[in-house]
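Troubleshooting: if your tokenizer reports a length mismatch, compare your output against this known-good record of 256 residues.
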Amino acid sequence: MHDCNDPDLVPRWFPIARSEEVEKRHVFHAKLLGEELAVWRDDEGRINAWENRCAHRGVRLTIGDNLGAELRCRYHGWRYLSGTGQCSVIPAHPGQTPSPAIRAKAYRCAERYNFVWVSLGSEGEIPEIATLAGDAPLTLRSIFVEAAAPVVGAALAGIAGATIRDPFTIETGDTIVTLLQPVSQGRCIIHAALTPAPSGDARLPVLRQHNERLSALRDAIERAGTGRLFDASTATTVDLYRRQVADTRLAYCVAS
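Known-good structure output:
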């Protein structure tokens, strides 16, 4: 059941992880609009995003095993095929072919801009983000915020020079794009990417600086709450993040 009051969000695509976080032979746990997801990459590189429950007893698939071409539930060993989610093996009945009706619920998923994107609906396309369309961007540390996505979006939009592409996509400077993942009604994750990606010795300072400033912004939002979003503390932190964006740009220019 989606923890979402806006049905228009269900078909929309959202980033739910950096591509590097969804490794082979691993199962990544994500949550989008209140829906728990088991996200995994098969040995051919294909991404799967499934409802996080086995069709048998509802056990979380994220505690299961990624076998490379199938996902195996830990409880009774039922196995599901990459791509379709079709049940392929029921250990208690080894001689039977599982019914086509027995399958994991699969959602649309794809990789773009070095993120894994998921849509819980059957329509819509991944947003086109011109800033990230060139060379592979550097994905920055994602950060969890105990606040609704619109609240976080409003704080990011308050950064001087920010460009709002849509309520979930905000460019905070010439080089950083922030993308919001609504986890539930009162929680979200901020993803971010920097382009062009710095190289060599410039890379680590950029990652550290982004993490420090974005962590401060998160702390201010959570302290302020929805009723006091732009109090003095939050305004100061927003200004710090604005200057971080400028500093990041400078750091890259110097390194290049």
